[in-house]
């Protein structure tokens, strides 16, 4: 019994030290990014200040930015790619569909999700997949900063900021990050959705509100769409009331089952217009 308690305390101490070291490394990386242009995280070419396509940090050279797999032609509700083609130029996904007729995929026409629209400027493939895996599983904050910067650069949010009440009124009144169960959060030591949502809330001046995950579900990675929906039924809870217009934040949308389940919980808490904000969308 004594040995068991000692082992638990030692494990908790090691986790605390790892978290402190991770935060220290993140601060050092942030200071270095401010002082030195560094190199592009994709092609490793030296960066000039003029090449840094950034909102705060996370520089990427113009050549790599242009070659990223942008999700240009997509369903307006779930961001499912409707036309697959190689991206040319750096025009944003939002600019591509602005002023065009409403585009919905067949699934959203027949069984629409609980959220109304999705912002997903990138496709989860190639270099974006590599960056996302570094960010999600290795806790690589620089990859996260780059993805966040591309999201803000590519989306119409970037133009809406600071242009008066008419423009900013299109932004949501609050952000809600997709939560991890407390057990899985302790095991991983990093919640990528909360990390992204915190920085988006700070950048856009929008409050961040909290949702809870009531149980630790099976991993979604090998489940079918129907299996994901069953696995997440009733998985989320929101305490208190939410404003009318909110956005849910996650790293990647695969089938949309997680965001759909969270959106239903947010509707029960009073939200009426719910958007999904993700860095990338997985093609079918």
Automatic annotation (TrEMBL):
All copies of domain Phosphoribosyltransferase, residue ranges: 196-281
Segments passing through the bilayer: none
Superkingdom in the source lineage: Bacteria
Alphabetical list of Gene3D superfamilies matching this protein: 3.40.50.2020
InterPro entries in UniProt: ComF/GntX_DNA_util-trans (IPR051910), PRTase-like (IPR029057), PRTase_dom (IPR000836)
A Pfam family annotated for this UniProt entry: Pribosyltran
PANTHER family hit by this protein: DNA UTILIZATION PROTEIN YHGH (PTHR47505)
Similarity-based family: Belongs to the ComF/GntX family.
Protein name: ComF family protein
Organism annotation: Halomonas binhaiensis
């Amino acid at each position: 019994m004594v040995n068991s308690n000692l082992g638990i305390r030692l494990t908790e101490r090691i986790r605390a030290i790892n978290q402190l070291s991770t935060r220290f490394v993140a601060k050092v990386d942030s200071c270095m990014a401010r002082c030195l242009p560094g190199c592009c995280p994709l092609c490793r070419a030296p960066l000039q200040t003029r090449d840094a396509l950034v909102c705060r940090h996370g520089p990427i050279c113009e050549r790599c930015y242009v070659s990223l797999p942008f999700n240009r032609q997509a369903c307006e509700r779930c961001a499912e790619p409707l036309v697959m083609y190689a991206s040319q130029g750096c025009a944003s996904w939002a600019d591509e569909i602005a002023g065009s007729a409403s585009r919905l995929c067949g699934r959203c026409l027949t069984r629409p999700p609980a959220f109304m629209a999705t912002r997903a400027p990138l496709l989860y493939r190639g270099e974006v997949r590599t960056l996302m895996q570094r960010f999600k599983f290795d806790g690589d904050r620089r990859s996260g900063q780059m993805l966040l910067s591309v999201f803000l650069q590519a989306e119409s949010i970037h133009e809406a900021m600071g242009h008066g009440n008419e423009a900013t009124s299109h932004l949501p009144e609050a952000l809600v990050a997709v939560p991890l169960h407390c057990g899985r959060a302790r095991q991983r030591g990093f919640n990528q959705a909360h990390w992204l949502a915190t920085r988006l809330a700070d950048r856009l001046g929008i409050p961040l509100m909290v949702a809870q995950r009531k149980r630790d579900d099976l991993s979604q990675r090998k489940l079918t769409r129907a299996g994901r929906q069953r696995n997440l039924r009733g998985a989320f809870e929101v305490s208190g009331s939410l404003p009318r217009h909110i956005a849910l934040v996650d790293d990647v949308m695969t089938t949309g089952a997680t965001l759909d389940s969270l959106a239903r919980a947010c509707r029960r808490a009073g939200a009426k217009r719910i958007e999904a904000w993700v860095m990338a969308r997985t093609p079918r």
